[in-house]
Amino acid sequence: MDGYAFRLRILHERGLSLVNKEIGGDQMKRVSSADKMLFVRSQHASMINGLQFRYPIFGPVVRLAKRWLASHLFSACLAEEAAELLVAYLFLKPLLFNVPCSRITGFLRFLRLLAEHDWAFSPLVVDINGDLSQNDEKEIDDNFTQSRKAYEENTQNESKAMFLATAYDKASEAWTRCSPNPLELKRLAAYARSSASLLTKLILQNQTDSRGWECLLRTPLSLYDAVILLHGDRLPYPKRLLFTSELDQGIFLGGKGRHVAHGNASTCFHPFLLPSDMKGSSLEQLKTKLMVNFDPLRCFVGDVENGFSNRLKLWYDSLGGDAIGLTWERSKKREREEEETDGKYPVDLLRNIGELGKGFVRDVYLLKAPRLSS
C-alpha cells in the first residue's frame, strides 16, 4: 500500500489457553513452535509496553542498549527481547539506587549489569507485573539448577549461559535457550566492562568531545581473526550507518594482516525503492521492483553460516553496521592439515566468502591465521 509492504498475523486470545491443554489426562495438545513463540512474543510485548508507560525513560535506555549491542557485533548473540528484559530489571530492581532517570544513567547500569552479574550461579528473574509467587520462584530456581547440572555433566552443552526468567518463561527457553553461549557471554561481559569504564570516565571528566562518545559505539575490528567490510549503500538501512568502518593500517605492518579481496557494489539490487524508480513507472512496474522483506545482510550471513559454520563464527550488526567480524572455529590438527592441503584455509576460504557476497562485499581482510588444536 502506497509503496510499503505489510505482513499481518492474526492473534486470538483464546489460542493462548490452547497452547498446552491437556486432552484425556496424559496426552498434551501441542501447537507448532512458531505459534507458541507468537503467543510468547505477544505476552512479552504487552508487558514491555506496560513498563514503558510506567517509566517513560525505559524506551530510550532500551534503544541505547540495543544500539550498543549491535555496534559491537553482538546481534547474533543476544536477542532484542533479552536486552529489553535486562533493562527492565534495572527499573524493577534498582536495589540501592533510585530508578534511572536519564538515558545515560540507565545505559551505564545496563553495562554494569552485563559485566558484573554472576551469570554462572544466579538466575536473573524479571517480574514485570509483580505476580510471581513463592512457588513460581521455587520453580525458576529448580529450572536454573537443572540447567546448570546438565551443563556440568556435558560441557559441550552450551545453552543457557544467561538465565533470564519471567512469568511467561520460567525456564528461560524463549530468548536465551541457545545464545549467548559461555564464550559469547564472556566476550559480552568484557566489552560491557570496557564500555562502562569509558562511559564513567567521560561523565566524571565532563567531556563534550563527540569523538570520545563515539568510541562507545565503535568496535575494535583488530580483535577479530578476519573482517568483511560491506558497501554501505547496499545495506538494508543505509541511513542507520553511524560510521564507515575502516581497518587501522598499522595492523598490516610487519605482514601481520592481509587484504584478501575487493569487490564493487552491484547495480542489480537496492534494499529500497529509489526516487528514479518512482518516476514514470506504473503501479504494476513498481510492484515488480518492490522487494518484500529483503535484507541482503541477513541473506549473506545465512549463506555463509550454511556453508562454513563449522570453520568460522560470524559477528555482525543487524541494525545498520557495514562490518562483519570472523573468528576461526578450532578443529583438530588432522582436519586442519587436510583443509590446508585442499588450499581452502585460510585465504582461499575468505575469497570464496567474498565471492558468495559479490556485489555486496566491499573488502575482505585476513588478520590472524587459524590456530591448530591438539
UniProtKB/TrEMBL annotation:
Lineage: Eukaryota, Viridiplantae, Streptophyta, Embryophyta, Tracheophyta
Protein name per its UniProtKB record: Nucleolar protein 6
Ranges of residues in domain Nrap protein: 55-207, 222-336
Gene Ontology terms: cellular component: CURI complex; small-subunit processome; UTP-C complex
Similarity-based family: Belongs to the NRAP family.
Matching PANTHER family: NUCLEOLAR PROTEIN 6, NUCLEOLAR RNA-ASSOCIATED PROTEIN
Main location (coarse class): nucleus
InterPro entries for the chain: NOL6/Upt22, Nrap_D5, Nrap_D6
Gene Ontology MF terms: RNA binding
Keywords annotated in UniProt: Nucleus, RNA-binding
Pfam family, one: Nrap_D6
Organism of origin: Gossypium lobatum
Location in the cell: Nucleus, Nucleolus
GO biological process, one term: tRNA export from nucleus
